[in-house]
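User: For a benchmark we're assembling, each entry needs the component sequences followed by a predicted structure for the full assembly. Here are entry 17's components. Please fill in the structure.
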Amino acid sequence: MWSFFHRLASPKHFYRFADRLIPWLGWSTLITFIIGLYLGLIVAPTDYQQGESYRIIYIHVPAAWMSMFVYVVMAIAGGIGLIWKMKMADIIASSAAPLGAAFTILALVTGSLWGKPMWGTWWIWDARLTSELILLFLYLGFIALQSAIEDRRTAANACAILALVGVVNIPIIHYSVEWWNTLHQGPTVTRFGKSAMATSMLIPLLTMFLAFKLYFATTLLMRARVEILERERDTTWMKNMIMGSDE
Amino acid sequence: MTNSSLSKAFIAVIKRDLTLALRTRSEIANPLIFFVIIVSLFPLAVSPESGLLKTMAPGVIWVAALLATMLSLDSIFRSDFEDGSLEQMLLSPHPMPVLVLGKIIAHWLVSGLPLIILAPLLGVLLFLPYHAMPALLATLALGTPVLSLVGSIGVALTVGLHRGGVLLSLLVLPLYIPVLIFASNAIATSAADLSIKGQLYFLAAMFALALTLAPLATAAALRISLR
Amino acid sequence: MKAFFHMGGYAMYVWPSYGLALVILLWNVILPMQRKKWHIASIKRRLRRAQDEK
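Assistant: Structure for entry 17:
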């Protein structure tokens, strides 16, 4: 078991492992999405307060959860790369960043689309949306720092420190934004998730959440695979593998 | 390595940075002038009406303080990086986080402290009630060290880059948000004659956290940037 | 069916959300696929050139 993880640390083995896993993950992602969408859009009943508009939460809430989750994954991978100098961990961290940013943007825009019929405006300084916005800034900072430093290893280590600092800060930011929010507009009545949700609405949400998780795993491996191709293109194993697959 | 030689090195770093900073006075003065100008732009841009300015004052002063700190941050490590003395520090037998803390303290003494001294004046310009002045000073006293501490991490990460300036603000400003929220709210609350104990405790907690963690992160970041 | 697409009058908000999600999610799948193809092709090209020179 341990040697399996050890082997994964080498880009060569990771590449093979990713190659084998991606189709499985990809298909299960697709199937879970189809089930989740069917349950969420067709089976789940209409909300008596928000009407059909609540169905946006099946995108918004998983995307918002993922945006936080991906940041933590990024920081852990970065920390592993920093401490044990594992190349694969650096690759995972840098591959996760654009995905996390994409989830954050998705959460922001769907939050705004949900907010328009509920609040009457496209944007409101609601605690969740504000936190997402700040999280987007953190992701953009990470990506900007990464592209500013030319040397790969330096970039990965610098970004790892930034991600770790960010992870310490996210709970503080989150708490302060919540506190600031309740102070300025009182607790928002129409908040996702907080009120007890009917099971018929909760199951599609959990399914969609699972689909997003699988999707993240798939695309993370796909990105990591490209990253390995880019970094290892001059190694013999890469040349052998590519020429081997040619014949 | 004895303790006394470490504390000597620590004080030597602070003294050295202070002398260097006092030699180039414009570097101290420019962020302060910037601070005053930014604040005085608001009445011109929004309205000179005292009621409106009074409600805006805490936020405006704090946002200006953030931006002024951003401007001065680069000087923590930039010149030492360029003349190679930062590398010498890394090679010295003393633990890097302690030396880094010395540099941060020196930075705060030349950038944060003058902000605190100037702030009441700007409070008057923006019609901040006099009884909120102690709150203004207290939040700045607790908040600006956090800005210097957290900012030093960003500077350490970007010091080796040619155009690190804008990137630095992109990295650091989001991390300043909690300080901004609690500090400006504390001043506004105090202006409304309410207790601000909670906000001050929170600022103090952030100060303690930044004081313990930021020098470690900065030292690690410097090691990476100088590789 | 028509009622389904109508979304109780909220179609204007629900469908753009799902559409955007589809675009972003697909984009993140297609992009690495294309980059993978491109990289493999470029490595092959370089190897062939190296072989021709020999």
